[in-house]
Amino acid sequence: MLVLALETSCDETSAGVVRDGKKILANVVTSQIDVHARYGGVVPELASRKHMEGIAVVIQEALRQAEVTVDDLEGVCVTRGPGLIGALLVGLSTAKAMAFALGIPWVGLHHMEGHILAVLLEKEVSFPFLALAVSGAHTHIYRVEGIGRYQTLGRTLDDAAGEAYDKVAKLLGLSYPGGAVIDRLAAEGDAAGLVFPRPLLHQDNLDFSFSGIKTAVLNYVRRLGAAPSDAEIRRICAAFQEASVEVLTVKTLRAVERTGLQRVVVAGGVACNRGLRERFRFLAQEHGFEVHFPSADLCGDNAAMLAVAGDFYLHRGGADGLEVNALAQWSLDSATFHRV
């Protein structure tokens, strides 16, 4: 099928055109970073307004790049949730309107399902596999039996990893979004002698907690009694990244050992983190499992990633009706089983 995909769950407005759930013909992403940077985080009302301004523009550009017209489209898929409800409604309403006007089916998808399956746009990864989905709002470990068949093995109990990165960057006076900045400064810093806690690391579960690491950084900065120097900021970033990466990788390795699955997909915006990638590659070689990452363009929020599942469901008649609404919160375990 030739599918138009739309993503508006947070602060990226994106439209993609994908053929047969595999070939990306276009993947246009417009970021709102400049809008939200002054606030140190996403402002939901502003995000919704920017989506309304930009959705038609990114669709037109995606169609132009793909060298197709709306009449060529055979289906539409869109993020239904979870996310900012106002932002989600922009994409969902657009998808419904286009599907109704064109007389083609549409389907609303779980945001993290798109992230988990994005790697399949670039390479073959055999099912079943483990997926570490790590972003600004999610830190989950899933067992993935196939498209539409997911089981949550572990999840964050408070802050997601990406959220912790952004909050630590803000308290250090770094620019937004903080993940990429901390990753760069961590590579330049030396964490020797500075150790932040690893919450839940030694507990017998696969859950995560990042609030404590963030609070430990805050308390350390307060104890300094003055604004940290550039060298001290790099040191803090290095120590924070060491703690975060250790928690993410050790928990995932524990999941590999418990399930016996030898394939791991790391997905979501934090999957771009160089320190995280390097540590996973080392552990994969040491323990004999495969680890796969999407390319950087497919790690962040984008529309094309939705087309893998979107094409799969639409091709099998799993379309949604116009009564389907957006969901601010939505468990992936229950999001898709009814379609397959």
How would you characterize this protein structure?
There is one protein chain. The chain has a 5-stranded mixed beta sheet with strand order 3-2-1-4-5, sandwiched between helices. A 5-stranded mixed beta sheet has the order 8-7-6-9-10, with helices on both faces. It has 2 domains: 2-117 and 298-339, ATPase, nucleotide binding domain (Nucleotidyltransferase, domain 5), CATH 3.30.420; 126-293, Nucleotidyltransferase, domain 5. It has 12 helices and 10 strands. The two termini are 18 Å apart. It is an alpha/beta fold. It is globular. Helix 5 (161-171) runs parallel beside helix 7 and helix 8 packs parallel to helix 9.
Compact summary:
This protein has 340 residues and is an alpha/beta fold.
Descriptive key words:
Nucleotidyltransferase, domain 5, 19% strand, 340 residues, 12 helices, five-stranded mixed beta sheet
How many independent structural domains?
2
Could you tell me the mean pLDDT?
94
Per CATH, the superfamily of the largest domain is ATPase, nucleotide binding domain
CATH architecture of the largest domain: 2-Layer Sandwich
SSE series: EEEHHEHEHEEEHHHHEHEHHH
How many beta-strand elements? 10
Low-confidence stretches: none
- What overall form do the CA principal axes indicate? globular
Approximately how much beta-strand content do the residues carry? 15-25%
Biggest β-sheet description? 5 strands, mixed
Helix content percent band: 40-55%
Describe the SSE topology.
Blueprint: E1 2-7, E2 12-19, E3 23-31, H1 33-36, H2 44-66, E4 75-81, H3 85-102, E5 106-110, H4 111-117, E6 129-134, E7 139-146, E8 149-155, H5 161-171, H6 178-188, H7 211-224, H8 230-259, E9 263-267, H9 274-287, E10 290-292, H10 296-299, H11 307-315, H12 332-335
Parallel strand pairs: 1-4, 4-5, 6-9, 9-10
Antiparallel strand pairs: 1-2, 2-3, 6-7, 7-8
